[in-house]
Design goal:
15% strand, alpha+beta, 258 residues, 10 helices, elongated
Length: 258
């Protein structure tokens, strides 16, 4: 028997597809893709049994399993769900749109450009000397917990200070520098390390820490390799490797780092 298919049904299907896509991304990032596929197979079988074959007994048993399974999934993936909901509540895109209507747009643009160039020039200089560095730029997601793990500095952002902090004999050399509101907030910070198995083996602990913070927040993490002098960036759980200073500047500008 045919049924009516209207605009509302199309919107309904699209919304379900979008939700499934974001759940898929969430599961993939948390290395739980097999769990997601298993859940989807169970849902398909449940719908087939209860809606198409109309097997009452088996359908009712699976109904109970679904109701209990939802609670079990919430408990099992509570950290991933909390991160997902936190990112939704951060209103990152809305905040960026509001910046377009700021009255001091030209002054802000110049200040942003100066901050970006301070970081780029420092990374270029450290890259030539093969001095390792890990710089994290806070955006909408608060990184106050990360700042607590290091030493508070609260200084103006400038190239020379960045280079001095990551000088090989500096006590803060091995930690991460945290930048917030165009100021060096803290240094020597400890970042959450990513356990993603897809990270190339030649990338070290700095890269894993950079990827970890980019997975848990909207921060931009910049890495200068101590072994190769290569410059990399981690944003949104993804790497951009072997960057030139010009490319780094382009990325920071496009991502509205400041």
């Amino acid at each position: 028997m045919f049924f009516d298919f209207g605009l509302k049904d199309m919107i309904d299907i699209l919304l379900v597809a979008v939700i499934l896509y974001y759940v898929y991304k969430l599961m993939k990032e948390s290395r739980s893709l097999n769990v997601f596929m298993g859940i989807m197979m169970f849902v398909v079988v449940w719908l087939f049994v209860s809606q198409i074959l109309e097997m009452r007994l088996l359908g009712s048993i699976m109904d109970k399993l679904v109701s209990v399974g939802v609670i079990a999934l919430i408990v099992l993936f509570q950290e991933d769900i909390r991160k997902f909901l936190y990112n939704i509540g951060a209103h990152q895109h809305a905040a960026r749109l509001l910046k377009l209507f700021a009255s001091d747009r030209d002054k802000n643009y110049q200040a942003d450009k100066e901050a970006i160039m301070s970081v780029v020039l420092a990374c270029m200089s450290m890259s030539k000397r093969k001095e390792g560095a890990l710089i994290v730029i806070e955006r909408e997601t608060s990184l106050s917990e990360v700042a607590e793990t290091g030493d508070k500095i609260d200084a103006n952002l400038n190239q020379r200070l960045i280079e001095n902090i990551f000088f090989k004999n500096s006590p803060l050399h091995d930690g991460a520098m945290l930048i917030s509101n165009k100021r060096i907030w803290a240094a020597g910070c400890i970042l959450p390390v990513s356990h993603n198995f897809d990270i190339p083996k030649e990338l070290g602990l700095r890269h894993r820490a950079a990827l970890g913070i980019s997975q848990q927040s909207d921060a931009i993490a910049i890495i200068v390799s101590e072994e190769t002098g290569g410059i990399s960036v981690a944003i949104g759980g993804n790497f951009q490797l072997r960057l030139s200073p010009e490319k780094l500047e382009s990325i920071l500008t496009a991502e509205k780092a400041f």
